Amino acid sequence: MSKRVVLEASHAVAEAVRMADVDIVAAYPITPQTHIPERLAEMVADGDLDAAYVPVESEHSAMSCVLGSAAVGARSFTTTASQGLVLMHEALYIASSHRYPIVMAICNRALSAPINIWCDHSDVMACRDTGWIQVFCQNNQESFDMTLWAFRVGEDPDVMFPVMVNLDGFILSHVTEPLILPDQDDVSRFIPEYHYRLALDPAKPTSHGCFGLPDIYTEVKYSQELALRKSRSVIDKGWKEFSNIFGREYKAVETYKAEGASTLLVTMGSLGETAKMVIDERRANGEAVGHLNLRLWRPFPFDEFRDAVKDVKTLAVLDRCYSFGGPGGPVASELRSALYNQETRPHVVGFIGGIGGREVDAQAFGYMIDRANEITEKGSDDLYEPLLVRGLESGTGVRG
Amino acid sequence: MTGQEHLIHRYLRSSKRFPHVWCPGCGIGILLGALVRAIDGNGYGKDDIVLISGIGCSGRLPVYLDFNTLHTTHGRALTFATGIKLAKPKLKVIAIMGDGDASSIGGNHLIHSARRNIDITAIIINNQIYGMTGGQSSPTTPFGLHTASSPFGHLEHPFDIAKLVEAAGAPFVARSTVYHARILERLIGTAIAKSGFSVIEVMSPCVTHFGKWSGIGSAVQMMQWQKDNTVSIEKARNMTPTELQGKVVTGVLIDAHKPTFHEEHARISREMKD
Fold first, then answer.
1. pLDDT over 50 (residue A132)
2. How far is B132 from chain A (nearest CA, A)?
């Protein structure tokens, strides 16, 4: 029987990891991720989760440890944030290149310097090109659901890629909300027993991590790229199966009140909930506005995204990360790039805000809608507009 | 107001917004006082000193003091310190770290700094737990202790930091506690004046987490614990291993002479010129 419970998102993720019956958890404490490994440590100690839990000596060690456990075919989980994620960077590429379906929850947090423990997306954006499947969550239920889904999709023989589940640090990780925990039998049906056919095994020797000389490296990397793109169909199939079993529907690109909308607010992560509230208000006033939640960041859902915005005039995109000296925030830049060769395309207006925990409230989203509409109307040479910078007049953009 | 308070105030960054981040009963403030008195007692100017820290509760210490200060990333205080010392050998370079900072994520830098014998003073505040992230087991957490990440007892055995750096080649190794604040002050003064890689392990109470998990209890009880469970190295030499069980040995544990990295570098330069 599924049951309605009240949990903070960190504990919801830990529940999902327990129900997925992982074999190995390796983690190093970092704010705001600590509640996930602490809860898992408790579950292991209580005998509720039959796994080995290793409190390693750094995040680099955490990722390296799950690389080892994944190599022998153990279902492996780790979790981190911010500096911890960027310390793992080298090993992240090994996970995706070796095709180990490790699942990692990231409680998104700003990067140093200055030291800041609050939420933005700088940490995961620095890992954009590591070859991991990357999804974002808007609330606690989604944090639970995406973690389960990550095991199902990552371990699919047609995928075999590691998955990052992004939940906003503090805003989700430390917030307590009601959610539905499914029945264990349903979870076991959704996530079948994992069998890794290339697992290190003395009876059937394989070698992982070989040299790739120039005569083969190009082909290896191209096949990795094809494989990640090909995983799109399993990613969608995973959500379809999820909905069939648990009743909640997810998609790579999710729209809200977007029908007939001329302007869409685009967000990733928990701010989608605030944005939707603003859309409700604006719709009540008869404005043709909607919301687009980009759930899947890698592999990027080009078709769904283009389809969702084909009749839209303006996209007001919020980035929670700088791309210093670049074309704007990473999300807005990619959306522009995805649309560039389309015959008709909306005007993409980028905003960078919510950095290092700075609040982006309903009023800010209201401003984004109005300002983006104005820019579509009048035009602008700005690359993007920084939001809520003290001392900076609103409407001041950054030019190339 | 006593004279000591005046001395501290000369070194605190008055523009810095207080109160500080440390919990009531934390030992880091006592160490800060001892450090300031040691520096002042040695007669160094403020500009002669560089304080470098990593991440954790200890990481905030340099922020409050009016020296050249650098608050770096987790575990890397010694690498930043090495860079500073190489570029500005005349500066007195002091790295302030916690046990997690120095012996887990930055453990490699600790042993290699000792091996290299670079002229840096490493002050390692050992509270035997990760304090800032909420009381998880660290590399110095006692075996069997219940913590936030080992709720049914820690399965791993702790490092003896002093022995670790001794084995790695540090020519000066000392240990004290914040209870022994005056002795601590003298040891810090000696360590900074000493050339080569000098390490002071400072046993310090984390009341909020270690006090709770270990059952030792309040700040006063943790101080009492330090008083009751420390033995000076002079006394310890005449004690049996059984008698030393569970005791923290304090004082100057190693004091040797060994050419520093800079001295070796100067020697090789001379030889090459000749």
1. yes
2. 8
Kindly determine whether residue A31 and residue B136, on different chains, have CB atoms separated by under 8 Å.
no
Chain A environment of B104 (Cβ under 8 Å): 28, 57-58
Residue A88 has pLDDT above 80, yes or no: yes
- By the 8 A CB rule, do B124 and B93 touch? no
In this structure, are A220 and A284 located in the same domain?
A: no
Query: A42: which chain B residues are within 8 Å (Cβ-Cβ)?
Result: 151
pLDDT at residue number B269: 95
Is B151 in Cβ contact with A83 (below 8 Å)?
no
End position of a domain, from candidates A213, A245, A277: A245
A151 inside 8 A of chain B by CB: no
For residue range B226-247, what is the model confidence (pLDDT) as tens digits?
999 999 999 999 999 999 999 9
The CATH number linked to B51 is: 3.40.50.970
Give pLDDT tens digits for B38-62.
Answer: 999 999 999 999 999 999 999 999 9
pLDDT average, residue stretch A161-181: 98
- In sequence order, what DSSP letters do the residues of B184-206 get, joined into one string? HHHHHHHHHHSSS-EEEEEE---
Query: Is A112 part of the contact surface with chain B (CB cutoff 8 Å)?
Result: yes
Contact A28/B at CB under 8 A: yes
- Closest by Cβ to B136, choosing from A55, A59, A115: A55
Distance CA B164, CA A205 (A): 38
Distance to chain B for A30, nearest Cα, Å: 6
| A341 has pLDDT over 80 | yes
* pLDDT band (50, 70, 90) for residue B19: confident
The structure's pTM equals 0.94
In this prediction, residue B5 carries a pLDDT of 54
What's the pLDDT tens digit per position in A197-254? 999 999 999 999 999 999 999 999 999 999 999 999 999 999 999 999 999 999 999 9
What's the gap between Cα A139 and its chain centre? Answer: 12
Those of residues 74-93 in A touching chain B at CB distance below 8 A are 83, 87
Distance CA A319, CA A350 (A): 7
CA distance A390 to A23: 48
* Tens digits of residue pLDDT in B248-260: 999 999 999 999 9
Decide the pairing of beta strands A296-298 and A133-136: antiparallel
Do residue A134 and residue A162 come from a single domain?
yes
Put simply, the answer to whether A57 touches B139 (Cβ < 8 Å) is yes
Pairwise CB contact (< 8 Å): A55 & B149: yes
Contact predicate A109/A120, CB 8 Å: yes
Quote the domain boundaries for residue A167. 3-245
Q: Which residues of A touch B136 (CB under 8 A)?
A: 29, 34, 37-38, 55
C-alpha R_g of chain B = 18
Please report the pLDDT score of residue B1 as a whole number: 47
What is the domain count for chain B?
1
Please check whether residues A263 and A205 belong to one and the same domain.
no
**CA pair distance A99, A155, nearest whole angstrom:** 9
- Residue A127 belongs to domain with CATH number: 3.40.50.970
